[in-house]
Amino acid sequence: MNKEDTQKYKPIFVNSIPLPLPEKKIYSRLGHNRHLNEISAGQQRKIANAMIAASACCKLKGVWLKLAITEFGENSFTLENGTVFQSEKLLRLVRDCSGLAIFGATAGHEIVERTAEFAASGDGVSALVYDAVGSETADAAMGWLQNYLNQIFKRSNEHLTRLRFSAGYGDFGLENQKEIYRLLDLGRLGVELTPHFLMVPEKTVTAVAGVIKVN
User: Which CATH architecture fits 3-213?
Assistant: First the structure.
C-alpha cells in the first residue's frame, strides 16, 4: 500500500468516550462468580466503592474506519483497500451491505494494572470488581461507538447492522485481529498485539459491522 492509500484509509480516533458506569452488567458479571454469591453488608459497600474507583481508572478511547465492499466471494469478501476477510458467517451478515465499519475501544492500561496489584496483594474482591468494571466498560464503549457511528452514517442514508463480529467469533478467525489492528492503527491508542493475536491492555475490544445503504 502506497503513502496515498495509507492517507485515504486513515482511521478516525475518538479521544474520549463519555460513558456512565454500566452497573447492572457489572453486578450481573459479579453475580456469576461463586466467591461473591454470599457477602456481608460491609463487603457490599466495598464493592460499590470499588466500582466507582475502578471506573475512574478506565480511560476510554476509540477508533473507527469505514471501507467499501468491492467484491463478494463464495465465503469471503474484499474491501476497497484490498483487505480480504474470510468467514462464511460474517459474509452472511454483510451480503447486502455496501461497506464495512471496523472499530475498537480500549479502557487503557491503568485499570488492568490496578487489577493486578489487588490480586498480588491478596485483595481478591477488589481484583474481581476491577476486572469486571474493565471488561463491561470496554464492551459498553463498543455499544457507544456503534450508536455514535449510526448518527454519523445517518447523514449519508446509511446505518450499521445490529450485530457486530469480533475476531475469534465463529469462523471469523482470531488471526484477523492482525489486520484489524493494522487498519485501526491501534498502536496510537497504546495497544499492542501479541504473536498470538491477543491485545494488550486486555480491556480492549474490536469488531466489524456491515454498513447498509438506505435507498
Answer: 3-Layer(aba) Sandwich (3.40)
Specify the amino acid at residue 188. R
Q: Is the preceding peptide bond at 195 cis, omega within 30 degrees of 0?
A: no
Instruction: Kindly state the average pLDDT of the residues 41-60.
Output: 92
C-alpha cell at 196: 498470538
User: How far apart are the C-alpha atoms of 196 and 206, rounded to whole Å?
Assistant: 16
Return the bridge partners of 160, or none. Answer: 211
Report d(CA 114, CA 127) in Å as an integer: 8
Per residue in 172-207, pLDDT (tens digit) is 999 999 999 999 999 999 999 999 999 999 999 999
User: What is the rounded CA–CA span in Å between residue 58 and residue 42?
Assistant: 25
Residue 85: strand pairing partners? 77
Cα angle 24, 121, 57; round to 5: 45
- Is 162 in contact with 155 (CB distance < 8 Å)? no
Task: Please name the residue ranges forming H helices in 155-201.
Answer: 177-184
Nine-digit cell string for 107: 479502557
Helix (H, G, I), strand (E, B) or coil at 173: coil
Closest by Cα among 6, 204, 11 to 104: 204
Matching residue, cell 475502578: 54
SS3 179: helix
Please give the distance of CA 169 from its chain centroid, rounded to a whole number: 13
